[in-house]
Amino acid sequence: VVTGYGGRRQKRSRPKPEKPKPIPVAIEKQATSTEFEIEIPYTIPSDNQPYDVHMATYEVPADYHYALVPKLSKAAYLIAEITDWSQYSLLSGKANLFFKGTYQGDTNLDMEAFEDTLSLSVGRDEDLIVKRERVRDRSSTSFLGSNKTVERSWQTTLRNTNDYPVDLIVEDQYPIPKDDDIKVIQLGHDGGKLDEETGKVTWSFTLPAGQTAERVLKYAVRYPKKRRLLVD
Question: pTM score, two decimals?
Answer without folding.
Answer: 0.70
